[in-house]
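Record now logged underneath.
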Amino acid sequence: MIEEVKHGHVAKEDVSALDYHFFNIEFVGAAAAESEGAAAYDSYRNYYLGNKPSRWATHVPVYRQTRLLNLYEGVDMDVYSKNGHIKYDFIVAPNADANQILLRFNGLDGLMLKNGELHLQTSIETLIQKSPYSYQIVNGVQQKVACEYIFSNGAIGFSFPDGYNSSLPLIIDPEIVFATLTGAAADNWGSTATYDVDGNFYGGGIGFDPFSYGVNDGYPTTIGAFSQEYGGGDPFFNISGTDITITKYTPDGTDLVYSTYLGGAGSEFPHSLIVNSNNELIVLGTTASENFPLPSNAYDATFNGGISSDLNNVGYDLGSDIVVAKFSADGGALTGGTYLGGSHNDGFNEALQLNYNYGDIARGEVVLDANDNIVIVSSTLSDDFPASNNAYQSTLQGGQDGIVAKFSADLSTLQWATYLGGSDADGAYSAKIDEAEMCM
């Protein structure tokens, strides 16, 4: 429901439509700690706010973690990310007292220890904080120290059943789920994600026109990426258009491998991502752009159009086509791409009978066979969709049908395509390939 308020589907004033539960964590007896950055990146940031030099700052360092100094006497606290999780460590100096550390959870419906984990009960759901991991560095080698949560005077502390060497620093390392934010001052909606064999994470979404929001900063793209600039997105009845945004993260989520826009002068939306055996990212999406960037060997380099539509507050003024694009491994170029569609709208599930949940209009998927050939499933309203002559269904069966299509790995050849539906509204949302056949 929060997403519906954000995207304008529920009035902001209607707070009764929201379920929420607030609580906080109090560091009992802690000091007003100072903070400092630690583990600086090689990169830096420059900020020029307005035309007053007093509001400018250059060569501002960027850090991987934040350190709170002397949160307790002889105890610092680091906050950072590692291996896909947000981490906070207590660093206990030699001869400092680890028993000073007490966490009080205020505002919960209940708090319990179960199998060494903290269960935080709210009115909505139960949250879990993992068992703590503690260690010391002894002669250059990390040695685990047994550590458990304990209740102490209404707060949570740490116990060390086997003791530890108080003459050495002690690191207490609880774990919570990792998450990161990405975006800009203009609106950004995430819609799809995938990963590769090296553990890199890819996120796909849409970015709105920053200038329509009165800001200069667009989506955070990287130098050398395919497109660092917002491509357009024509307003439709004063509703902003969008570009696809693609970001590749390192496995631990601490840095960007590449980040780019993808789109033309109309609106775009990504539905599904997958990475092939050459670490090339394939994007399945929908476009309303007559100038969507495509390589010269595209199966179909001409936008087929349709009728104007407004879907989820995004305008598709010239109709819509399915679009498939393939990025080089470094994200710097498109190595394949094509339109796919007929003279009506393609690529969205526009049938009212099939739209029950938020986001149902954007169902579709791209998968690969053993030879990296590209298979997509989506929906169409076109009665002249380019189905194969020998297709399972070569004609539109109802007002909207699902479609299945298979392309060569470079997207230069449509190997086959078929409608899939009956006399009423249909859509194709997902697919899976095994050695013998494809299942949907």
Observations:
- Residues 234-239 have pLDDT under 50 and may be disordered.
- DSSP finds one helix and 31 strands in the chain.
- The first strand starts at residue 24 and ends at 27.
